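REVIEWER CHECKLIST
Item 1: Sequence provided? yes
Item 2: Single chain? yes
Item 3: Sequence as submitted:
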Amino acid sequence: MTSYVRKQFQIAPETDAALARVAAKRHVSEAQIVREALTTYLARNGETREERVRRAMSIVGIFSGDGSNVSENHDDYLAEIDWQSS
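Item 4: Structure as written out by the authors:
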């Protein structure tokens, strides 16, 4: 069993409500949600910019395209979308 260090902090009421909803939906404790969020935050913010760039660039070219021109003409395709009905 993992041992934990007790911490105490204050959060805004709306954050508290959101935390309670997420914990209830996942059927875990609020403390578990906070631990997971902190672990994720610290892992992401512990990376240097170069590490984040290297991680992002590692996926470049691993997918094959479908022959369309979406990557070249994405602005044109986005302009065609009727955002009001989406």
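Item 5: Key structural point noted by reviewer: The longest helix spans residues 30-45.
Item 6: Recommendation: ____
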